[in-house]
Each structure stands twice: as structure tokens, then as C-alpha cells.
Design brief:
It is a single chain. With 114 residues, this protein is mostly helical. 61% of the residues lie in helices and 7% in strands. It has a two-stranded antiparallel sheet with strand order 1-2. A hairpin with a 2-residue loop joins strand 1 and strand 2. Helix 5 crosses helix 7. The longest helix has 14 residues.
Length: 114
């Protein structure tokens, strides 16, 4: 389910949907119905509290992360992985040229193989 969600929506947009209770936007993702979207919002709201706060400048949301790997680890933690586990998965596949979205996808794939 996490891979499906991340392949259909950017992490920032997903976070915004959860923070704004936007179940309608989440239902546009493949395999996510109204009840699943509402459950995602309820379950993820507290977990997203672990992520750095966002700031808005001229209709643009900016997350305060230091590296794509940090963002990927934070995203995995918000999906329910324990911090050491999330770090281990990201570090196992990390590459300087990878974006945070690529790191998240590959880390999730790596976690399934283990």
C-alpha cells in the first residue's frame, strides 16, 4: 500500500493531505477508497508530527530537511518503521544522486526483500 501511495503522490503532497484532512485527494490514488483515505489520515496524523515543520512562502511549501536521506528516513518513520530500521534501509541503498522519493521507494522495496 505504501509503494502504491508513494508512486501516485509526492511525499510533500501526501503530508499536506494528511495535515489538511483531504481525504478526497487521497481517494484519487489507485486502490485507496474513502474509508482507507480516512483511516490513513487518522493513523498518519500523529506520525507526521515527527517530521520537520513546513513553511509557506508565496504559495510554496518548503520542508526543512538537510539531505534527501534525512527526508527518506523521516518518511519511513512516519509510515511506522522504527528509526534504526528506517536508517538501516535508507543507508543500504543510499546514493548521492538519488532524490528523497527514489530513496523512499527503494528503501521500501529493500525492506520487503528482508
Amino acid at each position: 500500500m505504501a509503494l502504491t501511495i508513494l508512486s501516485g503522490i509526492e511525499t510533500d503532497e501526501f503530508s499536506q493531505c494528511v495535515q489538511n484532512n483531504d481525504a478526497e485527494r487521497l481517494t484519487k490514488l489507485p486502490g485507496v477508497g474513502k474509508k482507507t483515505a480516512e483511516r490513513l489520515i487518522v493513523e498518519m496524523r500523529d506520525r507526521l508530527g515527527n517530521l520537520p515543520k513546513t513553511t509557506t512562502q508565496k504559495n510554496k511549501t518548503i520542508n526543512v530537511y538537510t539531505t534527501p536521506a534525512d527526508e527518506a528516513v523521516s518518511a519511513l518513520i512516519s509510515l511506522g518503521y522504527k528509526p534504526p530500521e528506517a536508517s538501516r534501509y535508507v543507508l543500504a541503498i543510499a546514493n548521492d544522486n538519488m532524490s528523497s522519493e527514489e530513496l523512499i521507494r527503494e528503501a521500501l522495496k529493500h525492506s520487503i526483500k528482508k
